[in-house]
Amino acid sequence: MQDNIPIDIQSSKLLDWFISRRHCPKTWPQQITAIREKINSAIQDMPEHKGITKLLTGTYINYFHCVQIIEILKETEADTKSIFGRYGSQRMKDWQEIVRLYEKDNVCLAEAAQILMRNVAYEIPGLKKGLARCEQIQNDCEKKEGDCAKHARDSQEKYLVLCQQLGIEGKNIKKEIGQLITQLPQLYKDVAEQVKSLRKATQYYQSFTKHTIGNDDITVLPLVQYIADHGNPTVYEWRYGEPPLKIEEPFFVIEDDAETTSGESIDFGGSEIDFGTDVELETGDIDWGQIDMLNDAHEAVIDFSVTDDTGIIVQEDGVEGGIARDSEALTLLDYHKTRNTFIDEILELETFLRQRYQEVLSSANRTQFSLSQTDSSDEVSREQLEIMISQVNCVFNSISGVKLKHLSLIRESPRYVDRLASSLQQHLRLAEKMEKNQAATVEKRKASAAEQKRFHPLIKNLIEKTKELQANIEENVSKKYNGRPVHITGGVALI
């Protein structure tokens, strides 16, 4: 009955089990060293045989392999066998000696137990971790590929959108931007035409302010009203009330891209376009009020009246006029200070109209500021206010549009062209970098996939050999206990 009771041995304690039951001595490592030396010597002289080649390929040779080698040598060295059953072949003698040393003190069990424990605890888990790492690398690479492709696509789209906003193709950025400068007069002219639609809104604001303050001499939005009546004249004409006899246009040059041209420059100094200035831009941000502009000798006071001490020269033929230089040669919308004043007045008008609109919506009764208290003809309905607000927004969007902003800054500082071109090219460089990163990630993923394929057969082969080794150990131990079943439990069972 006791012979049928199985023997269960924990795989992690297998070697200790053998030593504690005195199947193996504690000095077995020293004996194994001598055996390994003999194996290394004997393996140098082996016959050509498929079985031996298979045993010796990628395998750490243990006792059970040596037994199989002897069985194969019995076939290959059969002609050296004597009538007494002994072999004259030195190969056979060497391997028989190795097996004898293994079986002495059951050193073979100690080594086999150590190999089994190492495979279960380290070798197989290590290979599986390598396999999992390859899978993780591939997943990360796939995600990174998508991110790189998205960033590259976004950068390309941003570049195209910016080029579209500026109205250029983007093939030769500096040259195309320089050519856009010729559109500025027409853009300003379009804005001036739109300002004419604000007459009713400015008159309403004027009437409201006069009624509220009680001063009939007050003037609101002087620049907006002036542009609505006179268009976009020069700063000289706005200040002195007379057009200049002569306009000295500033010199304006934009250098072309060195990569695509032979160093020629775009010179607008001799054209008929009425603008120009020498400005240095110290920051790449679009800031309408932080750019150093041309010197203005008449910026202290804006005088709408024409007096005798304005500097106007009376020519002999009786035509009044003078010479417009520097900032006075620019138009009202082209000169940064008057343009900023114009924008401020537009925002002031919009704020007033929106406030009035909210008052109309919030109460059905007339507010204390209602004009109907004095003049019912000045009453403005909600629908009329909506139209006025829409017209003001239209003018503001035109004067503050991306294209006009960039062109205005370029007009004021040709150096801004380099910064704008660099900003656009940065999107292209980023897209190119992302494409290179994507290509590198693809190569990394492919390399990881190849490494993963290499791990699969290694793991499979090691598991098979470990299970085979486990079966050999169980069989050998079973013989020592009169055939009782032996089970090695623990990590091996989970492989």
UniProtKB/TrEMBL annotation:
Write the record's keywords in alphabetical order, separated by commas.
Answer: Coiled coil
- Keyword Calcium listed: no
Gene Ontology cellular-component terms for this entry are: endomembrane system
Coiled coil (residue ranges): 417-479
The alphabetized list of GO BP terms reads: regulation of mitotic cell cycle
Q: Which family does it belong to?
A: Belongs to the CDK5RAP3 family.
Q: What is this protein called?
A: EOG090X07S9
Please tell me the species this chain comes from: Evadne anonyx
> What taxonomic lineage is listed for the species of origin?
Eukaryota, Metazoa, Ecdysozoa, Arthropoda, Crustacea
